[in-house]
Structure to design on (838 residues):
């Protein structure tokens, strides 16, 4: 019998986490085999999805359709070619871009998903016709947009945009250089012979918010508090480049603007004199910090450093208010959070952050926002702005045989000289954006060349598998080896969850990248708790005495926080859920499971030396943290939920960890008595799982959080146990069929059941079951990923539109945190198991 009300897999507040993962109501939606009009706007939808996404109701809608990175510089773009994420020095932190979409229920029907017009970075076009001039941003609805990568094994993003009224087509090529922290933005403009456009200028707009802000336990500082992080932008006439920057000594809020105050308080008369003064200021920038240099390939023909006068404070405050309300914090913490994180509580000036900076620093200098300055085709050439600042560069298009091009580089570094050195190298003689693109494509093709892929000729499955491996690579932090859950900031998944990471490791081992997994598991061994520790501020247990630890006063050793920033030296938690018992167990699993994929003897021995202590420490404390009343694991956090629970998810993973620790006993040299204790506790827990979570009614199954894991990786069922098959049918009915029949208004992690069933059918050598799973994988790849770019999200919502152009509606729209690395790993692994590997 089932005695436990389980929480569904969820990173939302507890009320949402108690929602069923899939709708179990008797909803019948007829799949309309009609050729429906595709969504005309970019990227907003003309109709709202059939269900709201609980993750986006917290932190904002993910406006990402393409992701790029080299492990250090990381960038993401919307479907209409806007830069919406720009992280440096890694995929975890810091987001250096001013961008904040909305978290209202209808955010996906709003322009830019609710972000203010001037947020992000994007291109625009000034043009002249016989009837007069005009200006258009290439993201506007007057343009059509189609996005793809240049090849299945490439991380070069291609966005094709057309404007029939102007007779213009623009192809954007965006990519991060594999060996340098430079984002290349190359635009090729084609003019139709009947185009009314006689002359045109491409304008590249930037709204960076350089940041060194990082909060332990609250991963919001570098994106949700942009009103506190921006410092200044200047135009350097010597380098012909914009420089967005914040010196390390001025990074704290409120900023010390003494560096720029002389020019902004008493600006020199005359543009040239002011420019010379700015050049002298830039020449003296020798302090470390964050420096983002933006420059056109062959210099620019206009620039603007402007003050961003948009209403950021009411925008941010409304979003933060909804976020804090959603988490239903205790009154004391609620007030603290609002006072610390809502702009209208932090900034009292009625003119917002910019007005506060002007008043506090007595600035007299003003400059028009770069967002509006280029509308007449002439940028005003202001060389400086600060506090809330944006920039723009212009490049006149020279058409030859109907084609023109312009390239803009974005280089990020920790010093002015580093950023400028990268920019100079990108612009150097003998290089070209075409050659840089070819080199980037060749690097990625070489990286994927040895990869194991599903043994199928299905082009979509192959493309998705390759994209998944690229996603895992771009999410891997070059400095630490950590792998973030998503490179996105909204919601903020730029941290490493051991839960996600254990399954990502499994996929990478299947793909043939054991060195990446070894390094990743060494990161887990480093961040694992070595001694008992206090709980986070969310909990009110008695004080922890590490010398005499008792539970629940102390969080046991051998466990993990929710997640961690990808810091190469420090151990910095990202979220405040203290004792994720399933993550502690999955950490043990991945450390032992990976060992079996290492073929080099010396590497295997070195690896065991590094991880065996963590395997033993995890097993010791998981075995000891027990509820004597029912023989289940102790009450703890499961699946990122704040309340302590005692569900199937914790029980099954602890069982998995204990079994694997027993299996590791000989290789790790664990004491025989210690191993015997783990083995005895595993047998006891196995019976407790049956006693507490088994449901005898047909189909016989086990009910609770993450029930698919019982099939795999736990392997709960003995060979020949008929409940394994009936449990598999239960999984199909709860999570796969609602997607296949399009009756689920919202889904998340449905690929989990797909993988578990594939593992069962492969184990049973069930050809019929494998064939059925292969068809389901094809459906998931086609219906749950972004058209053209093959990204899957954490959650996906049904919408009554034909999004992928196959003439069938409703479709599912990938939403939060696409590309979601764990979901990519799940579906890739399912394809590898169901189709076999080649």
């Amino acid at each position: 019998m089932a005695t436990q009300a389980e929480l569904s897999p969820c990173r939302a507040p507890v009320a949402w986490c108690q929602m069923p993962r899939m709708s179990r109501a008797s909803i019948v939606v007829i799949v309309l085999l009609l050729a429906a009009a595709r969504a005309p706007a970019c990227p907003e939808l003309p109709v709202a999805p059939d269900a709201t996404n609980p993750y986006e109701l917290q932190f904002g809608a993910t406006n990402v359709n393409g992701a790029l990175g080299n492990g250090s510089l990381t960038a993401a773009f919307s479907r209409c070619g806007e830069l919406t994420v720009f992280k440096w020095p890694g995929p975890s932190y810091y987001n250096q871009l001013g961008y904040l979409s909305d978290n209202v229920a209808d955010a996906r029907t709003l322009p830019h998903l609710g972000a203010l017009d001037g947020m992000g970075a994007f291109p625009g076009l000034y043009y002249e016709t016989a009837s007069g001039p005009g200006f258009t941003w290439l993201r506007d609805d007057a343009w059509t947009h189609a996005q793809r990568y240049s090849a299945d094994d490439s991380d070069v993003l291609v966005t094709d945009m057309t404007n029939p009224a102007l007779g213009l087509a623009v192809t954007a090529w965006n990519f991060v250089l594999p060996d340098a922290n430079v984002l290349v933005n190359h635009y090729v403009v084609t003019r139709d012979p009947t185009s009314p456009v006689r002359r045109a200028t491409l304008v590249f707009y930037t709204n960076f918010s350089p940041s060194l802000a990082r909060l332990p336990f609250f991963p919001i500082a570098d994106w949700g508090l942009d009103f506190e992080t921006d410092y200044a932008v200047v135009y350097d006439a010597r380098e012909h480049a914009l420089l967005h920057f914040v010196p390390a000594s001025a990074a704290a809020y409120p900023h010390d603007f003494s560096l720029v105050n002389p020019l902004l308080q008493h600006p020199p008369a005359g543009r040239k004199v002011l420019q010379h003064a700015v050049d002298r200021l830039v020449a003296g920038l020798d302090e470390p910090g964050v420096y983002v240099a933006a420059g056109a390939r062959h210099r620019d023909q206009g620039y603007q450093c402007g003050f961003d006068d948009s209403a950021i404070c009411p925008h941010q405050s409304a979003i933060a208010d909804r976020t804090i309300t959603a988490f239903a914090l205790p009154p004391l913490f609620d007030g603290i959070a609002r006072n610390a994180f809502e702009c209208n509580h932090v900034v009292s000036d009625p003119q917002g952050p910019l007005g506060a900076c002007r008043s506090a620093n007595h600035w007299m200098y003003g400059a028009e926002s770069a967002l509006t300055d280029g509308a007449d085709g002439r940028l005003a050439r202001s060389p400086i702005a600060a506090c809330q600042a944006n920039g723009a560069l212009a490049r006149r298009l020279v058409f030859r045989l109907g084609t023109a091009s312009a390239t803009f580089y974005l280089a990020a570094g920790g010093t002015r000289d580093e950023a400028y050195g990268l920019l100079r190298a990108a612009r150097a003689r003998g290089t070209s954006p075409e050659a840089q693109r070819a080199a980037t494509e060749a690097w990625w093709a070489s990286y994927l060349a040895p990869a194991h892929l599903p043994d199928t000729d299905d082009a979509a499955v192959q493309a998705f598998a390759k994209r998944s491996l690229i996603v895992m690579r771009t999410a891997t932090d070059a400095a630490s080896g950590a792998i973030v859950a998503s490179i996105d900031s909204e919601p903020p998944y730029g941290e490493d969850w051991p839960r996600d990471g254990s399954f990502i490791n499994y996929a990478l081992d299947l793909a043939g990248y054991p060195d990446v997994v070894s390094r990743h598991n060494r990161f887990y061994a480093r961040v694992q708790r070595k001694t008992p520790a206090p709980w986070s501020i969310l909990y009110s247990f008695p004080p922890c005495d590490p010398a005499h630890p008792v539970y629940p006063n102390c969080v046991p050793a051998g466990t993990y926080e929710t997640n961690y920033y990808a810091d190469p030296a420090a151990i910095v938690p990202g979220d405040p859920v203290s004792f994720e018992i399933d993550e502690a167990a999955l950490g043990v699993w991945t450390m032992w499971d990976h060992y079996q994929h290492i073929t080099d003897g010396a590497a295997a021995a070195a690896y065991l030396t590094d991880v065996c202590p963590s395997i033993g420490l995890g097993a010791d404390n998981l075995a000891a943290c027990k509820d004597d009343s029912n023989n289940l694991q102790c009450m703890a956090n499961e699946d990122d939920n704040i309340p302590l629970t005692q569900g199937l998810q914790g029980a099954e993973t602890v069982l998995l960890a204990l079994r694997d620790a027993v299996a590791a006993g000989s290789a790790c040299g664990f004491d025989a008595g210690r191993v015997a204790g783990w083995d005895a506790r595993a047998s006891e827990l196995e019976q407790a799982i049956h006693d507490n979570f088994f449901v005898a009614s047909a189909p016989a199954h086990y009910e609770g959080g993450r029930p698919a894991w019982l099939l795999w990786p736990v392997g709960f069922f003995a060979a020949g146990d008929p409940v394994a098959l009936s449990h598999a049918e239960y999984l199909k009915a709860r999570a796969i069929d609602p997607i296949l029949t399009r009756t689920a208004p919202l889904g998340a992690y449905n690929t989990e059941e797909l993988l578990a069933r594939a593992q069962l059918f492969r184990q049973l050598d069930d050809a019929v079951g494998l064939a059925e799973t292969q068809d389901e994988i094809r459906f998931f790849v086609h219906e749950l990923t972004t058209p053209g770019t093959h990204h899957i999200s954490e959650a996906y919502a049904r919408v009554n539109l034909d999004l992928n152009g196959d003439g069938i509606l409703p479709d599912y729209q990938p939403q939060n945190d696409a590309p979601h690395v764990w979901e990519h790993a799940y579906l890739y692994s399912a394809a590898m198991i169901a189709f076999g590997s080649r």
About this structure: DSSP finds 24 helices and 22 strands in the chain.
